[in-house]
Amino acid sequence: VAGAGIAAGQGPPHHDGMRLPDAVTLRFARGALLAWEPPAPRPRAPAVLLLHGAAAGAWVWAEGFGARLAAAGHPVFAPGFNRGSPAAPAGLADFAEDARAALAAIRRPAVLVGHSLGGLVAQRLLADPAVIGCALLAPVPPEGLAWSNWRLAMA
Questions:
Q1: Most-buried pick from 63, 67, 79, 134 (CB within 10 A)?
Q2: SS3 12
Q3: Residue 124 is inside which H or E element, if any?
Q4: Helix or strand or coil: residue 101?
């Protein structure tokens, strides 16, 4: 996937008149990811891997984050998490493997940006040598939500 000459079209104009790149869908070992190639890549700019929350999908980053980060010179990727099936729903380990496979597929150092569940997934990947930074947006705490929910219920 990395450096594969991902052709990004030009999306609608942003409020400041700048044209934002469109996302393309790429397949990788565990599914698909959205990708935005920067129209004017910045030298040595890291890739950004956007990890969505539990009630969303890769599409949640398409509204603004993906295109704006690409317009700033970063190659941007957003994988979807495999949800499993009703008989065998996916869990945190599965989501971490999805993100790890996406990170391997882009074949370049990346900054992880995780929202909610994606923040917890990002924390699971911090030891990967390809991860060079991480931003957590309203993350699930590393111990999960059971303790937090219990504390709130007992308050």
A1: 79
A2: strand
A3: helix 117-124
A4: helix
Note the pLDDT tens digit of each residue in 2-13.
Answer: 433 333 444 555
Kindly provide the b/e burial profile for residues 56-73, where b requires at least 16 CB atoms within 10 angstroms of the residue's own CB: ebbebbbeebbbbbbbee
CA distance linking residue 131 with residue 118, whole number of Å: 15
Which residues sit opposite 89 in a β-bridge? Answer: 84
Q: CA distances (Å), 100 to each of 7, 47, 80, 145, 152, in order? A: 24, 14, 12, 22, 32
Question: Using an 8 Å Cβ cutoff, are 124 and 101 in contact?
Answer: no
pLDDT tens digits, one per residue of 61-120: 997 899 999 999 999 999 999 988 899 999 999 999 999 999 999 999 999 999 999 999
Quote the DSSP letter at residue 128.
S
